[in-house]
Amino acid sequence: MRGTMAWFNETKGHGYIWTETGERLYVSTQGFTGGNAPIGRCAGLVVEFDVATGTDGRQAVGSFLVEEDAPRRARRHRSGH
Q: Domains in the chain, start-ordered, CATH in brackets?
């Protein structure tokens, strides 16, 4: 599945992902492949994941951040003034 990070607290080791269908799924540090959980601001970053159902309900597992090409920014034209 694909979705976006809602938030992730690296100190507490957990956060939430919004799925493409609008479901909010819990994700822990262990839910990221290779322990590569997000660091710093991550809201809105694209993430791919699988869904597992445990004792606390549905949660994201096998998650990883998707590297997307950043849109190119226009350069400012510098005038001679």
A: 2-65 (2.40.50.140)
